[in-house]
Design a protein that fits this description.
By secondary structure, this protein is of the alpha+beta class. The chain has a domain of 166 residues. It contains 5 helices and 7 strands. A hairpin with a 4-residue loop joins strand 2 and strand 3. It is elongated, with a radius of gyration of 41 Å.
Length: 277
Amino acid sequence: MSPDNPDPERHADISDDRPAPPRPSAVPPPSESAPPAGPAFGSVPDGSAALTAYPSGVELTPDEPRRPLRTVATVLGVALALAVLGGPLGLLWAAFAPDTPVLKTAEGAIYAEPQPEQPIAADGWFSLLGLAFGVLAALALWFLLRRRRGPVGLLGAVLGTLAAAPVAWQVGRRVGLATFDRLLESAPAGQAFTKPADLRAGGIDWLGHVLPVPHGNLLLPAFGAAVTYTLLAGWSRWPSLRPEPDPASFSWVSAGTPAPTTAPEPPAPGAAEPPRG
């Protein structure tokens, strides 16, 4: 065989002074920064939870234990606050509801008109203002008492508006009542004056002369509060009705273990070594 026509069946021996490049290993070498092998998912040696979820920048605390006394105090405080707000509601009703013209007779005061519309307007204004009061009370409790959303907030709203309605009625009907009583006693027969607004479609019945039970349009504030609060709870996107962190912002890390760092990749075959020295 001549050098120009080597034997194809014989492999030529090629010598090279360069060292053979290292072969990439299928398993990366252990690194000091790699996390040590730990127990199975969900447990650690001391028996505590292995994984802890937390949103970035937010520290989660466990729910406080339920305290019955605090719950009762919250309901009573909300009911008392709404009952006090019944006073301004009554003044507002007295300002919108028209007075009824009457005539003084020997038997007392009678309507100046055969079929006056003012008593009906007084009932209508109380119904509208009471319904709006219940809706606004439910909205305020929903946004102000976020940690008490649920049965506690609903019970406080209903009891508070039930107490606010009679307070508004009594405060509103007494505006100008002293002047009406004075004229009713001292005015001569035939003199015309006005009677302050009062309710004909609502009132209070006493159960056993002990428990007051409102009826008629005195129930409208509680109705508006109950419906509004229930709708807010039904449309809430959180199962617990309380604002919760976005699950997308959660990151899962091992409790008590630093986050693992990325191990360096092995050099590619034939890559030049970095300069030394």
